[in-house]
Design goal:
By secondary structure, this protein is an alpha+beta fold. It has helices spanning 3-11, 37-43, 65-77, 145-152, and strands spanning 17-21, 32-35, 81-88, 94-105, 111-123, 136-138. The chain starts with a helix and ends in a 7-residue tail after the last helix. The mean pLDDT is 90. Bound molecules: flavin mononucleotide.
Length: 159
């Protein structure tokens, strides 16, 4: 089983959004070829309307170009991207999303896919930023087995 097959097998019931693309970074890529139901709920779209698309469909007026540039540079360098973006659902509502995107490499080191773990966050009010998410906190917290496994992989951590 490849890493990708393991992720897809576990992702279906996960509460965190999971999306897998190919490696074509320049527009019209990257192309999504897998998204789990939690990702569909996050972006407010049917999975059939997501697969085959490029993640740029979530961009809008308040999506920060500077963060997108950092994102693209990380993808181009084959590095992890961890950051926060303002995105838009199909109905136009905006949300703040935390994204942890990583390259999936074959045994020979070649990048075969990108996988992103995504969750909605809100700006923390009043309390000091002591957690890993700093200024933001997730809108929901879960402890399903994949979330626990992802924590072990430092997903959403500032590493
Ligand atoms: C696996 C993966 C998931 C992504 N998810 C998002 C996302 O949820 N929201 C978003 O705005 N961009 C997302 N992107 C980034 C865009 O697809 C694109 O790479 C980014 O906009 C930078 O490229 P550009 O400057 O050419 O637009 C994702 C990219 C990858 C590879």
């Amino acid at each position: 089983m490849t890493v990708l097959e393991v992720i897809c097998a576990l992702a279906h019931d996960a509460t965190v959004g999971i999306v897998v693309t190919d490696t074509l970074i320049e527009a019209p890529g990257p192309t999504i070829f897998y998204a789990n139901p939690a990702f569909g709920r996050l972006v407010g779209r049917d999975l059939n309307d997501i697969v085959g698309q490029c993640p740029r469909f979530m961009h809008g007026k308040e999506t920060r170009q500077e963060t997108l540039d950092t994102f693209r540079r990380a993808l181009t360098a084959g590095e992890r991207f961890h950051g926060f973006l303002t995105n838009y659902r199909a109905d136009g509502t905006k949300y703040r999303v935390e994204i942890d995107c990583r390259p999936l490499r074959a045994a020979d080191g070649r990048i075969e896919n990108f996988v992103a773990f995504e969750r909605e966050v809100v700006r923390r009010i009043g309390r000091p930023a002591t957690s890993a998410t700093g200024r933001y906190e997730p809108t929901s917290v879960s402890n399903d087995s994949l979330t626990v496994a992802l924590r072990a992989l430092a997903v959403f951590e500032h590493v």
